[in-house]
Amino acid sequence: MGEQSVFKPEYDYKDVVSVSGAIRQETIHGALNWLKERAQLDIQVEHFFSKGLYARRIHLPAGSVNVSKIHKHPSLSIIATGSVRVASTLGLHTYKAGDVIVAPPGMQRVVCALEDTIWVTVHENANEERDLDALERELIE
């Protein structure tokens, strides 16, 4: 289901995200463009299905930077292990293992892994779709 933009941990997240708080969407786009010029990691995405639900799990190595996709619908993100610093238009937040994030639609985030982190995102899948390309078209802007 699409590429995940995750970048090697040799770049300090402070190069990408201001620690002052919320960032504008244009800043996120600028960070993504800046990061695309750097070496990317090959991140495996695992997919899970249950009645009415679709979940994806990724492993973010410590020090890596990820610019999230923009979801069309609300979703849940679960930090299964590790910790991350997340910058978005809502501000700068640090999450650790066990935290659950309720993400509104239209949100894009810059995620900096402070430790090796397992991140799980859960989406509604009322149509029980299993085709990953079709899910991408339904869920991602």
Describe the secondary-structure layout:
Elements: E1 6-7, H1 25-36, E2 45-50, E3 53-60, E4 65-67, E5 75-81, E6 83-88, E7 91-96, E8 100-103, E9 110-113, E10 117-124, H2 132-139
Antiparallel strand pairs: 1-4, 2-3, 3-10, 4-9, 5-8, 5-10, 6-7, 6-9
Secondary structural class: mainly beta
Question: CATH H level: which superfamily?
Answer: Jelly Rolls
What is the CA-atom radius of gyration, in angstroms?
14 Å
Number of strands: 10
Strand percentage: 35-45%
Strand order of the largest sheet: 1-4-9-6-7
The helix content, as a percent range, equals 10-25%
- Please, what is the average pLDDT? 82
Task: Quote the distance from N terminus to C terminus.
Answer: 13 Å
The number of helical elements comes to: 2
CATH topology: Jelly Rolls
The low-confidence runs, each spanning 5 or more residues with pLDDT under 50, are 1-20
Give helix and strand order, one letter per element, not per position. EHEEEEEEEEEH
Note the overall shape: globular
Q: Which CATH-level-2 architecture?
A: Sandwich
Q: How many structural domains can be distinguished in the coordinates?
A: 1
